[in-house]
Amino acid sequence: MSEESTDNVTFQRPSSTYENLSTRFLQKDRNFQRQYAHLYAERLCSMRPRLLETAKRRWGESVVMRKLYEMKAEEKCCIVGTLFKSMELKPSILKEISEDHNLVPQPARDKYIADSDTLILEDELQRIVLVGNVDVQKAITGVVVAVSGHERDDGKFEVDDFCMADLPVQLPPKQLDEDRYVVLVSGLGLGEEGHHLMNLQLLLDLITGQLGSPEEQEVYSKVVRVIIAGNSLSRNTQQTDVLSTAKYLSRKVKAGTVEAVKALDDVLAQLASCVAVDVMPGPSDPAFCFLPQQPLHRCMFPQASVYPTMQSVTNPYEASVDGVRFLGSSGQNITDIFQYTDMEDGIGILEATLSANHIAPTAPDTLACYPYYNEDPFIMSECPHVYFAGNQTKFQSRIFKGNAGQKVLLVTVPRFVSSHACVLLNLRNLQCTPVVFSSNIGSE
């Protein structure tokens, strides 16, 4: 239990209850001999009962439920299946082959959408092209949906309406009688030169009680946990040329990752000495890139790992803090969907994944993930109270309300390396605000 003090007053950091709920994201073995088709089949099988229930509530108990092979021409019916976008510009192995043969490779793009894209619905046995009341460019590959309509003479399915499963049950959050806070921060970018390091130190000093007015110290003394949502290291620390360097020369090559990890260890040690901290891996961190990413090994943090308050966790990550259920990722899922839809808003994409009841629907099609066989851990089995994504371009927040009264706070956490901002979230009322740091004008 830490104390923050000024010359006249001392503040005691309150204790909090905590439960790590990320067990399903921990890999018990690594078997890459399996096919990814098993993951799609398990996703459809798990989601189908929830979709059927939602469809009957939306279109009535008398709605005709069919599988694709059971459809009759012009019969109005409901089909449950997995969406797949056929995209001409989507990168493929053919791009790599063309580069090997010195052909003109496909140019890099921010988005891979085109007017020629088509939307397909597939179940266990067949697939069919969807047309009608459906927006192809906002659809996300891998989402399980129920569509209502009929099969046309040309073999395509005319969609009249569609729906996704209702959100799962949400337990009511614990009622707190005082303010308690969680700090969300991502994209620390250690190893990258820049003035953001001074701003990072301001953040550390504010949380640990070495900075700020008595009023600010009183607020930050109530921070019970800090969640670092990936990309703690800069992408510049990854030296891919080391892999192609001769062994006797590679000894002279000092990887930037080593110094960056030492700096991260120092950051975590400062935080963990005063407050509980969870560190998630991200795409630029020294962790296996496939989702779910496994916790960073504690041996990388000799200073911070001596504190029981320092915890290395998975990405995605789920936990309960004082009865408030958090679920979030380091942002790969949002970035990937951005590239394959016309959605521009990070908070809108985050809401779309929540509506789909799935953290990473584009995995494994365009987002690398482990080939699960008997489960899909990315399916939301219980509705969170806070759903966040790290490493976004800007801070955004929004309350999403489910049909059964669920209330979910959506939060996009900006990259600290560019925004110099973290997010302060109040567990008592689920209000959150960005806190911006500047070494020139102090903190806001």
UniProtKB/TrEMBL annotation:
<dbReference type="GO" id="GO:0006271">
    <property type="term" value="P:DNA strand elongation involved in DNA replication"/>
</dbReference>
<dbReference type="GO" id="GO:0003677">
    <property type="term" value="F:DNA binding"/>
</dbReference>
<keyword id="KW-0235">DNA replication</keyword>
<dbReference type="GO" id="GO:0043625">
    <property type="term" value="C:delta DNA polymerase complex"/>
</dbReference>
<protein>
    <recommendedName>
        <fullName>DNA polymerase delta subunit 2</fullName>
    </recommendedName>
</protein>
<dbReference type="GO" id="GO:1902969">
    <property type="term" value="P:mitotic DNA replication"/>
</dbReference>
<dbReference type="Pfam" id="PF04042">
    <property type="entry name" value="DNA_pol_E_B"/>
</dbReference>
<dbReference type="InterPro" id="IPR040663">
    <property type="entry name" value="DNA_pol_D_N"/>
</dbReference>
<keyword id="KW-0539">Nucleus</keyword>
<dbReference type="InterPro" id="IPR041863">
    <property type="entry name" value="PolD2_C"/>
</dbReference>
<dbReference type="Pfam" id="PF18018">
    <property type="entry name" value="DNA_pol_D_N"/>
</dbReference>
<dbReference type="InterPro" id="IPR024826">
    <property type="entry name" value="DNA_pol_delta/II_ssu"/>
</dbReference>
<feature type="domain" description="DNA polymerase alpha/delta/epsilon subunit B">
    <location>
        <begin position="182"/>
        <end position="395"/>
    </location>
</feature>
<comment type="similarity">
    <text>Belongs to the DNA polymerase delta/II small subunit family.</text>
</comment>
<feature type="domain" description="DNA polymerase delta subunit OB-fold">
    <location>
        <begin position="35"/>
        <end position="161"/>
    </location>
</feature>
<dbReference type="InterPro" id="IPR007185">
    <property type="entry name" value="DNA_pol_a/d/e_bsu"/>
</dbReference>
